[in-house]
């Protein structure tokens, strides 16, 4: 999975980068054996609030405070990444299927220009209500 995600250009489609930040943290520590630090290099804790409470419990070992169980952390991150890709919250640069859908939308000015004719020939909402009763 690390090989695949390192070959893809992943980006969040919103301001929420928590899953991608956790993936970057997992990548930085992928060579550690059993545990990885719970904090980034700058001392801030890794934000795993994107995960369910069950995942948040599973990645921690009560006998090792300040560390995540590496394999559980990786499973949590990759499961969340798959869901983010499915919902469009994370996009892959390039392919259509997982691309950022917001970049594929028409600008509002183009929509208005294309719908001007339709609005001129379609009945108003008041007319539609009178004719459908």
Q: Can you summarize this structure?
A:
The chain is mainly alpha-helical and about 130 residues long.
What is the fold's blueprint, element by element?
Blueprint lengths: L1 H6 L2 E3 L5 H11 L6 E3 L15 H6 L8 E3 H18 L2 E3 L15 H14 L3 H8 L1
Antiparallel strand pairs: 1-4, 2-3
Helix pairs in contact: 2-4
> Could you describe the largest sheet, including whether it forms a barrel?
2 strands, antiparallel
Shape assignment: elongated
Distance between the termini: 59 Å
Helix/strand/pairing class, anyone? Answer: mainly alpha
Strand order of the largest sheet: 1-4
Structure description:
It is a single chain. The protein is mainly alpha-helical and 133 residues long. 47% of the residues lie in helices and 9% in strands. The protein is built from six helices and four strands. The chain has helices spanning 2-7, 18-28, 53-58, 70-87, 108-121, 125-132, and strands spanning 10-12, 35-37, 67-69, 90-92. It has a two-stranded antiparallel sheet with strand order 1-4. Helix 2 packs antiparallel against helix 4 (70-87). The longest helix has 18 residues, at 70-87.
């Amino acid at each position: 999975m690390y090989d695949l995600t390192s070959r893809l250009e992943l980006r969040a489609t919103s301001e929420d980068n928590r899953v991608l930040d956790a993936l970057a943290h997992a990548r930085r520590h992928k060579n550690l054996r059993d545990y990885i630090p719970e904090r980034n290099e700058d001392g801030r804790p890794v934000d795993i609030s994107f995960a369910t409470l069950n995942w948040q419990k599973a990645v921690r070992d009560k006998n090792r405070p300040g560390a995540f169980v590496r394999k559980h952390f990786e499973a949590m991150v990759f499961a969340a990444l798959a869901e983010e890709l499915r919902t469009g919250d994370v996009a892959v640069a390039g392919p259509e299927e997982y691309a950022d859908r917001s970049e594929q939308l028409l600008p509002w000015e183009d929509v208005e220009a294309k719908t001007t004719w339709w609005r001129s020939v379609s009945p108003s909402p008041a007319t539609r209500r009178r004719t459908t009763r």
